[in-house]
Every structure is written in structure tokens, then in C-alpha cells.
Amino acid sequence: QRKAEPATLEAPAGIDIAEAQALADALAMARDLIDTPAEDLGPAELADIAKDIAQRHGAVVSLTSGAELLAQNYPMIHAVGRASHRPPCLIDIRWGEVSRPKVTLVGKGVCFDTGGLDLKPSGAMKLMKKDMGGAATVLGLAHALMAAKAPICLRVLVPAVDNAVAGDAFRPMDIFKTRKGLTVEIGNTDAEGRLILCDALAEAQGEEPELLIDMATLTGAARVALGGELPALFCNDDTIAEELVKTGMDEADPMWRLPLWPNYKKLLKSRLADLNNAPEGGMAGAITAALFLEAFIEPKTKWVHIDTWAWTGRAKPGRPEGGEGLCLRALYRYLRKRYG
Fold this sequence. Notes:
Elements: H1 17-35, H2 43-57, E1 60-65, H3 68-71, H4 75-81, E2 89-95, E3 102-107, E4 109-113, H5 122-125, H6 133-147, E5 153-163, E6 175-177, E7 183-185, H7 193-204, E8 211-216, H8 220-226, E9 232-235, H9 238-250, E10 256-257, E11 275-276, H10 285-294, E12 303-307, E13 311-312, E14 322-323, H11 328-339
Parallel strand pairs: 3-5, 3-8, 4-5, 7-11, 8-12, 9-10
Antiparallel strand pairs: 1-2, 2-5, 6-7, 9-12, 13-14
């Protein structure tokens, strides 16, 4: 009896095998980072992985950590992360020729989220190793873009922290001045992702990027509205938003647009500060979180915010249960089409 030959994969004509492999690597990287227990992946370990990715592609990395965050005016990243024995940091990757279009990616890197002094219940805390899913996804996306030698000037910013409980944890009703200069009253310490992002977004705009994209596991409200398979898209440019939604559908990596509804800005008001990070009542939680971030975006900046679950709750073909780089492929394809 003739022995059967092992099965092999044959790519269809016209398929870029190297690109497909880079995207597969990027997704595997994002999944592995999200699935790694927080004991083994704190801010320093996430920074080491970012350095490895950068070294692979000839990119440059700088790291601002611990008390240096205060010295360099990143007060919110420091405040959220100061209670942990693992110091907070801001990871900054740069790659590509400065003459090319500037694209900046920002990813929320909360390596574990207890909720802080507004402590999460055990059921809500269980999956919080994945609260750095935004960071994992933008690092995977950056890997794919650099592997493709995309004709852009790429910058990646990841504020990486643990939101821990200790004697020096930041408190409800504390007021902080952000990097942009706006003051924020802490309505809830469990709304910490938007706090670290606001400093990173303010930094990102110093070089006037042509496009600024942030990704974050930001709100449970987005999951209530759209479920786990459909990240919420917020964007201040209608054309970009429409193209992203279409690209997501074409790539079977969908997202759905929610509005930056201006009437809800009043929910972010504070008697004592410019903003409150957590409006009372919980109405329109994903929208108010996005509006909080928008307060740190300059009007001329083309900005995309994606509120993702970064997780697959039930295994499906090609999508095992666990961490997931939702929108990674869609964003990659959109950026390749936009910039060539």
C-alpha cells in the first residue's frame, strides 16, 4: 500500500506569502501577549518585548519609567501606576524615514487592572490580564507594517502600568493636571485606561501625525452595545471612518462606528476640574470615554479610537478561545491602501 504524502498548503495565485506570514505572526504575537499571565508580563516585560520587536526591524526605542515620568511631564501615567511595585513606563518606538507620512499608534498597556481603590469584584477582575490588549494589538500591527516596509514614518506609544491597590494608590476625587494641561477629577479609579491614554495622546500630537490611531480595552459599555466580536470605532473624520468600516467588512475583521455625540460632553463636567474621568450613572459609557479622549485631541488631528474586547470568548475555526488582535488585519489593510 502506497504511503500518503503529507498535506501541504498551496497559496492561490497572486497571494503575497510573505505578507500573509507577517500578518499571521502579528496576530500570534498579539494573542500570546494577551494570554500571558500578568505575573509574567508587567510593564518592564512589555517594554522588553517592544524592544525585541523594534530591534528586529531596525527601529529605535526609548523608555520613560518610574519617577522620570513626573520629571518628563507624564503625570497621569505615573499616578495610575505608582501603587504597583512594578514601575509604570511609557514605551516609545520610532521607525521609518521622517520625510514620509507620519502615522502614530497608541495602545493601552494596563498589564493588570484591579480597579484600584474602586476595586473590581472577582468576576470582573478575572480577565484583567487582557487589559493590555490595545498595546498587544498595536505592537502586532507595528510588526506587520515594518515587515512590509510600509512607506510611512511610524511611531508607537504604549503607556504601560499596573492599576494596583496600595497606600499610595490614587484616590477618588483626587485632581491631577495632565500633560496637556487640562485638570481631571477622579470619579472612579477603575476608569484608568483613559487617564494613561490622555498623556500618551498629548505626546503623540507634538509631531503632528498625519493619522493618529489608539486602541484600548476601554469600556464594558462597548461590549454591552456591540458584543465581543465587534469593536467600537470612534473617529473625527467621516471619510476615514467609512473606509475603515468597509475595510473591516472586506477583511472579515469588522468594527462598528459609534458617535462622538457632543451633547454628552456635559456628562464629563466637574465642579472642581476641567473634566471628570467617570460620569455618574453609566449612561453611554463607551461614548463618554471616547469624548474624554477627544478632549485631548487637537481639532486638526485625524484621529481614530477603537474600543476593543481583545478576546475570543468561544473558540471558532482559526480563532481559539483567549486573546485576540481584533481589527489588526483591518487596520493593516487600511493603512497599506492609504499609504501604498
